[in-house]
Amino acid sequence: MNNNTSIAWLLGLGSNIHVAVGERELQYLLADLPKFITIPNTPTYCCKVFVWQKEIVPVIDIAQLVLGQNITRAENEELIVLATFQANPTASLQRGAILLSAIPSKIYIQDQQVCELPPPKTLWQQLALSCFNHPEKGPVPILSLERIFLTPASSLRSN
Fold it and tell me: pTM for this structure?
């Protein structure tokens, strides 16, 4: 591996949507879904939380946010990854969970794979740091977890 290569996790979100996160941002894969608590008066893509080690963890369905509609996943295709992020370099670690439809896979990304964000581009610009072209999946946004979990839902726009 050379200096122009980074390690990341490829996440299948369902409905043929794939994203990536940095290698050290994923903590746990939860194959057994925890008991969700629904938060009233919130958008459906981010209306659930659960308790993990005495901490309330928000859950986001990025595929639902991107498509603007409910995503149906088979029971055996519903997983959660627990991720960590920081609001800034000196802040404490925070946790958030992302709904997946497949087990994450480790990938290697090279600088020359950089490409344009897929549609809806305006929304991906709010959620992603960059994008790369995967040989099988096409354009794959690299998520900014702090943007996803700390941006108010009312601020995210897909147009």
Answer: 0.91
